């Protein structure tokens, strides 16, 4: 099932083309939208919310047309903006309740729902304090809570880990993953930090200068490479020599050996050599591609 799709989507501004004939579709789950700053990620989200008209092409969100049904889209979609937009003299509870009521919930239901989502994002007693005294991490949690308060079918999260320290990033990523798995809400999350999306996404879309570079399941981005990392406690040099004698391609990096996988016989050769030399094997790990590697390769091909 496609929860959103674009066809030849283009957005031109007087001095730049933000989106260039973008054609892509997104299924359920957590989808990452990857690109450098200025790649067109925020522009795409604004078009999908019906807040910005495209110059050409079209798009649908939950089978609703972005150019003619923007109001209906915003009723059933949550949005966490990148920029700081919280009123400093209002508490998180007051703010989220107000937005819940704007979405059509009666006041009592709005208060109950606001309390639920604020607890879910990790704000307990702090939710009664004015948001002007919040840390960046707390403000990000409030923005996530308001995106969830009206029980949307899908949420758009624009750079949700911006400004967070490592612990805050980990906690935010865990929240996003829970939303997509435990609560069954589809998520489109943007980031320029590629390693983050490897941890939480089912599918990743890579764009650069408004153009689609690649759209694939995360498993395809991070598939195994043809290289084994081998680490032994001692005897790395004798091991390298023994493997080379048996026709294996070996490169030594300090205590590590990188061995090219030519087939199942490579694994057998490493096992036999370790046993014959009476070595202590610490790890034997097959390498995996990273989104960052794929992004670099795809961008180079476009150029």
TrEMBL record:
GO function term, MF aspect, one: ATP hydrolysis activity
Q: CDD domains under this entry?
A: ABC_DR_subfamily_A
Q: Name one Pfam family in it.
A: ABC_tran
- SUPFAM superfamilies per the UniProt record, alphabetical: P-loop containing nucleoside triphosphate hydrolases
Q: Which InterPro entries match?
A: AAA+_ATPase, ABC_transporter-like_ATP-bd, P-loop_NTPase
Keyword Flavoprotein in the entry? The reply is: no
Q: Which UniProt keywords apply?
A: ATP-binding, Nucleotide-binding, Transport
**Where does the ABC transporter domain lie?**
4-234
Q: Has the keyword rRNA-binding been applied to this entry?
A: no
Q: What protein family does this chain belong to?
A: Belongs to the ABC transporter superfamily.
What's the protein called, per UniProt? ABC-2 type transport system ATP-binding protein
Species annotation? Nonomuraea endophytica
Organismal lineage = Bacteria, Bacillati, Actinomycetota, Actinomycetes, Streptosporangiales
């Amino acid at each position: 099932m496609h929860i959103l799709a674009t066809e030849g989507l283009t957005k031109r501004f007087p001095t730049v083309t933000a989106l260039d004939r973008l054609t892509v579709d997104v299924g359920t789950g957590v989808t990452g939208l990857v690109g450098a700053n200025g790649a067109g990620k925020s522009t795409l989200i604004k078009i999908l919310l019906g807040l910005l008209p495209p110059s050409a092409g079209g798009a649908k969100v939950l089978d609703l047309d972005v150019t003619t049904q923007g109001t209906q889209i915003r009723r059933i979609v949550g949005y966490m903006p990148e920029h700081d937009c919280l009123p400093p003299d209002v508490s998180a509870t007051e703010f989220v309740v107000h937005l819940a009521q704007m979405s059509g919930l009666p006041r009592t239901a709005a208060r109950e729902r606001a309390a639920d989502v604020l607890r879910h994002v990790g704000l307990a007693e702090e939710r009664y304090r004015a948001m002007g005294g919040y840390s960046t991490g707390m403000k990000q949690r409030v923005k996530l809570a308001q995106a969830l308060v009206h029980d949307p079918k899908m949420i758009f999260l624009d750079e949700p880990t911006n400004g967070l320290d490592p612990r805050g990033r980990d906690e935010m990523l865990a929240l996003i993953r829970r939303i997509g798995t435990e609560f069954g809400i589809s998520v489109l999350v943007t980031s320029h930090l590629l390693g983050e999306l490897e941890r939480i996404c089912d599918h990743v879309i890579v764009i650069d200068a408004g153009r689609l570079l690649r759209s694939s399941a995360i498993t395809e981005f991070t598939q195994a490479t043809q290289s084994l990392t081998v680490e032994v406690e001692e005897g790395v040099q004798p091991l390298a020599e023994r493997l080379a004698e048996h026709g294996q391609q070996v490169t030594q990096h300090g205590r590590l050996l990188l061995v090219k996988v030519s087939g199942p016989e490579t694994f057998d050769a490493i096992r036999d050599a370790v046993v014959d030399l009476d070595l202590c094997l610490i790890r034997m790990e097959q390498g995996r591609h990273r989104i960052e590697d794929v992004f670099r390769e795809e961008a180079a091909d476009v150029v």
